[in-house]
User: What shape does this take?
Amino acid sequence: MASDFSLAGYIVRRARLVGGSVLENGNPFFAPLDRLQADARSHGTVLTSFANYDYLGISDHSAIKNAAHAALDRVGVGALGSRLVGGERLIHADFESALAKFVGSEAALTLVSGYLTNLTTISSLLGKRDLILYDELSHNSIMAGVQSCKADAVEFRHNDMEYLRHVLQTQRAEHRNCLIVVESLYSMDGDIANLPELLKLKDEFNAWLLVDEAHSIGVLGKSGRGICEHFGEDPKRIDLIIGTLSKTFVSCGGFICGQKVILDWLKYLLPGFVYSVGLPPVIAAAAGAALQVIEDEPSRVGKLQDNAQRFLIKAREAGLSTGPAEGYAIVPVMFPDMKSTMAASDYLMQRGIYAPPIVQVGVPKGLPRIRFFISARHSFEEIDRTIEALKAFSAGLAKTPVPPEPVPA
Ligand code: PMP
Assistant: This one.
């Protein structure tokens, strides 16, 4: 048989290798949310979605929509250039200073994507003879940054501060600069980095600390200011706080918060900022309005925290496996294998609950799960109903005999 050298053939073979077989069991991905919502409405119900980052339930807030409309009328959709040369708008600096103030840093800089922000910052900051230490459960954008970085890289066991100390003790001295990279609220497991210990280690070993707060701004701390507010630490002690506008700020884009002198130079040096278009002004306006809503309506943060704690407690009472989740906006529920994870998601969908499966590629092969994004928008009734459905599904699963493993020929 002639070999297939086509690009299409190559892509299909690669996709199979990295887990394309998932799709052969029925494709639960790319379900248009508006269609699911319309379907639910046509049955006289309302879709309960646990699939969206809208942690504070503000994506349809009139103040945000109005701000976007007004910016659209005033300055149009796009920035029409790199901010360095033509793409700068008044709204960029306004939003960035409001954001820095909210986070508690000296300054902020926005980029067009959260993914890009990690990738470009991590890959371009360090060079040869430097050392980068990163948590093994870091988001793919952090991994991509590490992979494109010339520094020596060491992965440390998830949230294992003893191990991190050991690596610093054995490897720090022979390197010039050292950067520790962690997430604050882990996106697949829902547990939190040990910030007090990280700050101690950073000081002791003369390292820099980058914290990805993608999932914790608007989520952790009494007023949603993130991991520093949660632990009562000063945000200025973290060298670089990275975040995204796609989650609590219900729009799109990434940001870096840190010292003004650092960001003033990154504006000229950071490839993903310099060589990419500025944040669309309409998006900056929407994110700015979202920030204002978070400040004006602080009870949303409390409601989110109550909801997430309730979800976690009820899930554990129901005997569901929630891994190390701490009950802040992200709670995974683990299943024994990919097939049962997909079936659980389908079972929920049939009951008007949208919670897609997360299987290999997103998480390690043996740890499939449904990741529940909790929102201030959810009612206690929706949470309780979801846990009841998961409990019923799991009870059915326990009764189903496990088919024997196929014997290799
Ligand atoms: N960091 C983390 C921890 C994330 O989970 C994500 C995306 N979910 C990103 C960065 C990338 O952000 P964005 O989707 O806004 O590009």
Remarks:
- The radius of gyration is 22 Å.
- The chain has a mean pLDDT of 94.
- Residues 69 and 282 are 8 Å apart (CA to CA).
- DSSP finds 15 helices and twelve strands in the chain.
